[in-house]
Amino acid sequence: MKPIPTFCKADYQFLRELILKSKNETNTKEANLLSQELDRAVIGKESELDSVIRINSFVTIEDVQANKQMKIQIVLPSAADLKQSKISILAPLSVAIIGFKENDQVDWELPAGIKTLKVVSVDNSDVLHS
């Protein structure tokens, strides 16, 4: 069963606004998927979100089948830079893991099939707390 994502109220509202602003662009599918994740999300207290993936989180994820790890940072679309492993919040990978915490496993749908990703670590030292 898929874990339930958790967001603080400020991130939740920010992501809702971001979805509304970006629906007319090429990422309608991702915006809709993110919206669905927000629909089933739990709103948590800021103090409870230390190990939860948020905007600006540094995340280590593992492709369970391939046994490969990668480190990424989830950023706003304007700050995305693949060369620096900065992935837009509206990219499919970010949508798949945002709101989840360390040790959660999520399935990520790719054109080649479904991958299972495990959240190995989350570093929120650069996250702006509201």
What's the SSE blueprint?
Layout: E1 6-7, H1 9-22, H2 28-39, E2 42-43, E3 58-63, E4 68-75, E5 86-88, H3 92-97, E6 105-110, E7 113-123
Parallel strand pairs: 1-2, 4-5
Antiparallel strand pairs: 3-4, 3-7, 6-7
How would you describe this protein?
- This protein is an alpha/beta fold and 130 residues long.
- It is globular, with a radius of gyration of 14 Å.
- The protein has 3 helices and 7 strands, in the order E-H-H-E-E-E-E-H-E-E.
- It has helices at 9-22, 28-39, 92-97; strands at residues 6-7, 42-43, 58-63, 68-75, 86-88, 105-110, 113-123.
- Helix 1 packs antiparallel against helix 2 (28-39).
- The N and C termini lie far apart (31 Å).
